Fold:
Amino acid sequence: MSDNPAKVLLVDDSGFFRRALTQNLEGVGFAVTGCANGEEAIKIAKKHRFDVIILDLHMPRMDGMITLRILNGRPETRGTPVVVVTANDKADDRMTVMQLGGIYRPKKSLTFDALLETIQSCLALSAPAVKAS
Structure:
């Protein structure tokens, strides 16, 4: 792991998905903070800076679309890349996420390598000095 690992906020109501993805991301050098819904994500993101946010679209309490809108509206998180991951691949959702500046990735066709490539592309575009080891 590098001295300055990229920080990822992982927001998904599936504990299994969070644990598995956290283990994989930490295994390649990322520092991961996980939470189960959008309300938690907003609170955490107000206190800590992240290099990228991975956000589930369909969650209880506050869904990913509302969370994405709020994150984009806050100065402390406005420029943070958000990768929206969803089990349902709907054209309307895809369009809205893209209009809000998010990157849309359906889970059914998403491999860890593809997600890792997306994250690394976000990091290269937003902060070239911050990379996973």
